[in-house]
Write a structure and sequence with these properties.
Blueprint: H1 3-21, H2 23-43, H3 59-92, H4 99-111, H5 114-125, H6 144-168, H7 172-180, H8 185-198, H9 201-213, H10 217-222, H11 231-241, H12 245-267, H13 291-313, H14 315-319, H15 324-329, H16 332-363, H17 369-378, H18 385-396, H19 402-444, H20 448-476, H21 480-485, H22 493-502, H23 506-530
Helix pairs in contact: 1-16, 2-16, 2-18, 3-6, 3-9, 3-13, 4-6, 4-23, 5-6, 5-13, 5-22, 5-23, 6-9, 9-12, 11-12, 12-18, 16-17, 16-19, 16-20, 19-20, 20-23, 22-23
């Protein structure tokens, strides 16, 4: 046997031995696979319900698909087009004030619970909004207008952070060479800047498109009727309002096929970085910008500040009018503690899933099986949350009292949904650890507990704090999973905001939104400090 083949065989056998010791990782993988299989078994109709295939002939079904694709495409294109001049100014204009604060605010806006923004938009542009008297008589927030405003608010910051990091990655030598060669502004953009952008623009547009296609809370609150409904909202209404499981199954299958196809296309576009800490400085040398480009960037920067802060600032005077006694009577303190408990539990469980699965990945990193491990951890990116939730809900409905055990499903589903993000953030750090210390750890022959406590976890600590903070904020703002498994008797903060706004208690909804925003901000401050 050749020496290389023999070495690979030894590594493979060692990997299998290590895998056999990773019982927690194997349990995590088994749990995720089992959860998925149960959901798909239900979607296949084995739960006693068959999919309502008659919807193929219903014009409403095709209207929902058309609107889902149309609003997602518009949101993605507008978000990226608006982000281009702003991100260029952030990277290349050294006189812009508060750049670091703006990039931090962009991060908070991107992960901000949707109900906070929705409350702000209603207070700002609703029927009795602050700015509504200055708009035309035909202005209407509910429908495509409101959905686009909300989606751009949530995704423009993401596009700005990605593109700013791309522009900042251009080396000073490239700028100096373009100046020495006497490039005009358009030549410099085409030959220096565009090559850096074109590789990431399709991925950013595709990612935002997927987020908007799977949007739930925004469309549910601002859709305004059946004409502005998406597949996510249609699934929810079929199951919770009409209680038509067969129709929900058919819609879930449709969304799975469409979202899965979109993700497959998106995965071919490449990767991008957006979670890097906000940088306050630029390259060592920046070219002189034309007056028109400088003005365009600064105007866009000021407008972005206004657009991203007004829907939040309008909540402050509105919250002062809130009836505290009414909120206390609704059980605000218990709702707050419940929301924090669910979010912390989901983020911790997702971290356990990711670390244990990465242990299996590390043991198999020299074999082809490590790709399967990564695929299992990342698959929730392909399957929409509503699809998994509906499948599990329908399958277990005859056997479980979801009114009593729904909170367990909320924690488990949020942990699974956040898992791909946690896994992708931890993966490079774990790979670096294995490359630097894996062989030393094997030579020392210490027990796993000692290695994890004194070497492994301290090495991962900065990234662990980042993913804990981000997963906490994402789980705290969950709306779609709670919409399936929750109920009005044990609400969370996002659902309380939704019910208050729906009953025209906008001042109380504003106060609860600010409370939710405070906890999201504290979580992200933890992320920035630990970066």
């Amino acid at each position: 046997m050749p020496q290389a083949a023999k070495l690979n065989s030894q590594r493979y056998s060692q990997g299998l031995t290590l895998v056999s010791k990773q019982w927690l990782g194997l349990l995590s993988l088994g749990f995720i696979v089992t959860l998925s299989l149960l959901a798909f078994v239900s979607l296949a109709g084995w739960s006693g319900e068959s999919a309502a295939t008659y919807l193929w002939k219903d014009p409403w079904f095709w209207q929902v698909i058309r609107f889902s694709l149309w609003q997602a495409g518009l949101s993605a294109l507008l978000s990226v087009l608006l982000a281009l001049p702003i991100s260029r100014a952030l990277a290349l204009d050294p006189k812009l004030p508060a750049r670091r604060a703006f990039l931090r605010w962009c991060l908070l806006c991107f992960v901000m619970p949707s109900l906070i923004l929705i409350t702000g938009l209603v207070a700002l542009l609703g029927r009795s909004g602050v700015l509504t008297p200055w708009l035309s008589d035909g202005w209407r927030l509910y429908g495509l207008n409101g959905i686009l405003l909300a989606h751009i608010f949530l995704n423009l910051p993401f596009a700005i952070r990605v593109l700013t990091l791309q522009w900042q990655s251009i080396p000073s030598a490239a700028w100096k060479l373009s100046a020495q060669l006497g490039f005009s502004g358009w030549q410099r953009f085409y030959l220096v800047e565009w090559p850096v952008l074109r590789g990431v623009l399709p991925a950013v547009i595709g990612f935002i498109f997927l987020l908007c296609f799977n949007s739930f809370a925004v469309v549910l609150a601002l859709g305004g009727g059946p004409a502005a409904s998406t597949l996510e909202v249609a699934i929810f209404q079929s199951l919770k309002y009409d209680f038509n499981p067969s129709e929900a199954l058919f819609l879930a299958w449709t969304q799975l096929l469409l979202a899965g196809s979109i993700y497959v296309m998106l995965s071919r576009f490449g990767r991008f970085q957006w979670l890097a800490p906000a940088q306050s400085g630029q390259s060592d040398w920046i070219p002189q910008q034309s007056l028109s480009m400088t003005l365009l960037g600064r105007i866009g920067y000021v407008m972005a500040w206004l657009y991203l802060t007004l829907p939040i600032m309008v909540l402050l005077p509105l919250a002062k009018q809130a009836n505290w006694q009414l909120l206390l009577n609704t059980g605000l303190l218990s709702i707050l503690s419940r929301s924090l408990f669910l979010a912390v539990s989901a983020s911790l469980l997702s971290l356990v899933f990711a670390l244990s699965i990465l242990s299996v990945w590390a043991a198999l990193r020299h074999s082809r099986w490590h790709m399967w491990v990564s695929s299992i951890a990342l698959y929730p990116l392909v399957v929409p949350t509503m699809v998994l939730s509906v499948g599990l809900y329908i399958l277990m409905m005859p056997y479980l009292d979801w009114y009593r055990w729904g909170w367990v499903a909320i924690v488990l589903m949020n942990a699974v949904v956040v898992l791909p993000f946690v896994f992708k953030q931890l993966h490079p750090r774990v790979a670096s650890y294995q490359q630097q210390y894996g062989r030393l750890q094997a030579d020392l022959n210490q027990d796993r507990f000692t290695c994890w406590r004194h070497i492994y976890l301290p090495y991962l600590k900065p990234v662990l704090l980042q993913v804990m903070a981000m997963s906490f904020v994402l789980a705290l703002g969950d709306m779609s999973i709670f919409a399936i498994f929750g109920n009005d008797d044990w609400r969370t903060l996002p659902w309380l905001i939704y019910t208050l706004a729906g009953s025209y208690r906008l001042a109380e909804a504003a106060l609860v939104s600010l409370l939710l925003l405070v906890f999201a901000y504290l979580g992200l401050r933890w992320l920035e400090r630990s970066a």
